[in-house]
Design brief:
seven-stranded antiparallel β-sheet, 14 strands, about 20% strand, alpha+beta, 2 domains
């Protein structure tokens, strides 16, 4: 079984977009209602049973069960019988709103994310349809619940043997999009390890370093775009909530946000393809990003989205027939790639790896990437050839990033 997600632009007519606008709004209200229900339940249990809360009293009986996905779905089905707004919207789609809320709570319990928040006006942006009818795609049209056939801008063809299983309709600043989950009932084998091996180290200074000595700089335009975004957000926050100017300012913010997202995605894909050009095997560190981001590196690591990049890299490798694997990340920057000597922790400011044992010297991130590559090769059963001779250190340090 193979799943792909393809995104297409939708050309909704006025009536269709009105329907989906209304459904977004009703989804938002369902989210807020269900969240309020859960919040009240928690608050009613936050003070001691034999004491009174100073602020307010909650009158939820002590034996009332905690609202769950199942109980809220049941309540939703009941409410649909009497509420025309609710019954006008697609029932499975509304259930998905409750499922998303459940996921947000699970994220809070298990991954330490924040308490789910209420959604302000226009903050609900997507509708998820978990099932589509039989043959939902004909040429460049897709049949969506509630609005029937809709034209898509078929920017790339839907691959043969794939069937659209579910659809997520998203309203972005630049218009409506549909993300189709395509499924094929085939078993695609992962490519076997072969060819040149490349290790990569996701860095603090540059975006990444490769075992061949290249350093890919973090694109500068992101800094500029982020600054622009902050400025626009600041401006928007001074406008009167709900006013025309406020709406215009919000529109500007979301357009720029979309642009940043697309630019980053583009950079990630190009970089992934560039790496695939260099060899038949790519190895990266299996970083637990959550722990890493919370630790001492938090300021440096969060922004470039390493986790996203690795999943894109894995996907591109699979498409290109390149072997991809993650290796143990422990102390990759504390080992000498040339003689395997443990060199000890480096300070963040220490940019050069220098081995006191064998005298090998190179950039610290490149050295880490070399260790990653050696670990990867060892894991796939290749003998590890120690580097060093014939490899001029100075050439490693002066190689420049490619133009991406
Ligand atoms: Zn050494």
């Amino acid at each position: 079984m193979l799943n792909l997600t393809y995104t297409y632009r939708l050309k909704l007519n006025q009536q269709q977009s009105q329907t989906y606008e209304a459904w977004l709004e009703i989804s938002r209200r369902v989210w807020n209602f269900a969240l309020a229900q859960r919040k009240d339940w928690y608050n009613s249990r936050s003070c001691r049973i034999d004491a009174c809360s100073i602020k307010s009293e909650y009158i939820i009986p002590a034996d009332a069960p905690r609202p769950t996905f199942a109980s809220q779905c049941k309540a939703l089905t009941q409410a649909r019988k009497t509420n025309p707004d609710l019954s006008a919207a697609h029932s499975q789609m509304l259930q998905q709103v409750l499922r998303r809320l459940e996921k947000a709570f699970i994220g809070m319990w298990e991954s330490g994310r924040g308490f789910p928040r209420f959604k302000k006006l226009f903050r609900m942006r997507s509708l998820l349809f978990p099932q589509l009818g039989v043959n939902p795609i004909e040429g460049s049209r897709v049949k969506l619940p509630g609005v029937g056939w809709v034209k898509m801008q078929l920017s790339r063809p839907i691959p043969d043997a794939f069937v659209a299983k579910q659809a997520q309709v998203v309203k972005k600043a630049s218009g409506w999009y549909v993300m189709l989950t395509l499924q094929a009932d085939v078993n695609v084998p992962r490519s076997a390890p072969h060819g040149q091996a490349v290790g990569i180290d996701l860095g603090l200074k540059s975006f990444l370093a490769t075992s061949t000595g290249e350093q890919i700089a973090r694109p500068l335009f992101f800094v500029d775009l982020q600054r622009q975004l902050r400025l626009l957000q600041q401006r928007a926050s001074h406008k009167k909530l709900g006013s025309n100017n406020w709406r215009k300012a919000q529109q500007k913010v979301s357009r720029l946000y979309e642009h940043i997202h697309n630019t980053r995605l583009d950079f990630h894909f190009k970089l992934a393809h560039y790496l695939c050009d260099q060899g038949g095997m790519i190895f990266a560190e299996d970083l637990n990003f959550k722990v890493w981001a919370k630790g001492m590196f938090s300021k440096h690591t969060f922004s470039p989205g390493f986790g996203k990049f690795l999943s894109i890299l894995e996907w591109v490798c699979w498409k290109r027939g390149v072997y991809f694997a993650l290796v143990n990340p422990d102390s990759t920057s504390q080992t000498c790639p040339n003689c395997n000597h443990y060199t000890g922790k480096k300070e963040l400011s220490q940019r050069v790896h220098h081995c006191s044992e064998c005298g090998f010297e190179t950039d610290r991130d490149v050295a880490a990437a070399m260790v990653v590559m050696q670990r990867g090769l060892a894991a796939v059963g290749h003998t590890v050839k120690m580097l060093g001779e014939g490899l001029s250190n100075s050439s490693l340090l002066t190689q420049e990033s490619p133009v991406l």
